[in-house]
Amino acid sequence: MKSLTHKSLAALCLALPMSAMADATMYVQSLKAKVLAQPSFGAPVITEADRGDALAVQETQDRWYKVSVDGKSGWISRLVVSDRAPMAKTTALDDHEGLDISARRRASVATTAGAARGLAYDDRLRASQAGVANYAALEKVENVQVSEQEALAFLAAGLKQ
Amino acid sequence: MIASRLLALACMAGILSLGPAAFAAETSFRDRASTAETVSAENVASDVKAELAVGKDVAARILGRYRLFENEVLTNYVNLVGQAVAAHADRPELTYHFAILDTDSINAYAAPGGYIFVTRGALFNMQDEAELAAVLAHEVAHVTRKHIVKELRIKGTEENSAQSALTRVLGATGDPTRVAFAQAVDQAVSMLFESGIKQEDELEADRVGTLILANTGYDATALRGYVARLQKLQGESMKMMHATHPPFDKRLAQMDELIAAEKIGATAAPRAKKRFASRVN
């Protein structure tokens, strides 16, 4: 304690909260994430991190983490990382798991396995026949396939313009 | 010495009290609701499945209200731009779908689970690809921030919960909870077309959308620019936008604040104007 002056203690006070997350590991969720020279999107891009990269947090500042990617130190937005590894692609319920909905203005919580796949077939048929819903059009929407890699190549070409 | 000890104690107290508070404030930016509870990976997966189930029916209702604009070139273009934007956001578990609605009304919609629609009216009022990416990023932000999901409290149930046991008992179709599911779809549709998503959520979608756009690489001032242009438009095509969104002045003011804080726009960024013009017009 003798060696700690008021000044150094005060400095410690300021420094510790900022480095409290220093041991945390964050996983990149987006396919690509910019790593920037300063904690702002207007700063020069140093490199990019990829989805699933596990990054040790060196420092936090507002909406940013300071991390190291490929030996290069820089700042990554908190928006595109999580303390969980990225989830695999998920599809709608395909078994008899329940669904728990407490909709607005509903005091009670209700669950149903019947709703697990969405509305039942006859509900959908009625909605379609009444013109309230259009599942045929939805199928067309779902059938349009663009892969992430195709989209990235398209993006790269566009950004060069 | 005493002063040093007092300072040390004050310091420790500060770390214990201010540290978590400061961190909580930051995490609130990331996910306001989920930080309140610790959930297992299984629960998270179950929640996503429930979200997808609701989203699919909400998307079908949107397509029941407006016809699908079936132009292969434009649909493919919107999907390429949309997928590029979504790839730079934070919910890799979702498969996004993008489509154009055949209406003059200027608007865009996001159903839970990643079903995103932009109207023909909105598309033909854009000036470049950055603006298209910006509108899609705003909608992607509604999905990544789970605005409708949180408002309607849509989630999967735990396998071993009492409610899940009830689920198995009530399992057959025609039970009251099937009605509850249909009501949730109705309420989501009502939010999209009538009451609007909460103002604070719309404003968050503007902020998060702007940041997603920046991470994608387009000029991140594009959303601000598009909204500013819409502010000058009047008439029937803007009726629903006015009814379901916060005042333009409020939206622009908080985007200006974010753009200044992030130092966005100081240097020229890509807008892909030529490519947009070659496809839309």
Description:
The complex is a heterodimer of chains A (161) and B (281). Chain A has helices at 6-19, 121-129, 135-143, 148-159; strands spanning 25-28, 32-36, 45-50, 54-56, 59-61, 64-69, 72-77, 81-82, 99-101, 110-112. Chain A is α+β, with helices and mostly antiparallel strands. Chain A folds into 2 domains: 6-82, SH3 Domains (SH3 type barrels); 99-159, no CATH class. In chain A, β6 and β7 form a beta hairpin. Chain A is elongated and about 60 Å long. The relative contact order of chain A is 0.11. Chain B is built from 13 helices and 4 strands. Chain B has helices at 2-30, 41-65, 72-86, 120-123, 129-144, 147-152, 162-170, 176-195, 199-216, 222-231, 239-244, 248-261, 273-279, and strands at 97-101, 108-111, 115-119, 154-156. Chain B has a 3-stranded mixed β-sheet. In chain B, α5 crosses α10. The longest helix of chain B has 29 residues, at 2-30. Chain B is globular. Chain B starts with a helix and ends with a helix. Mean pLDDT of chain B is 82; it is low at 1-38 and 158-173. Chains A and B meet through α1, β2, β8, β9 and β10 of A and α1, α2, α3, β1 and β4 of B.
Order of helices and strands of chain B: HHHEEEHHHEHHHHHHH
The gyration radius over C-alpha positions of chain A equals 24 Å
Largest interface, with Cβ-Cβ < 8 Å?
A-B, 93 and 110 residues
Helix percent of chain B reads: 55-70%
Portion in beta strands of chain B: 5-15%
Structural class of chain A: alpha+beta
Main β-sheet, spatial strand arrangement of chain A: 4-1-8
**What composes the largest sheet of chain A?**
3 strands, antiparallel
| Overall body shape of chain B | globular
Q: What radius of gyration of chain B results from the CA coordinates?
A: 22 Å
How many structural domains does the protein architecture of chain B include? 1
Number of helices of chain A: 4
Largest β sheet strand count, sense and barrel closure of chain B: 3 strands, mixed
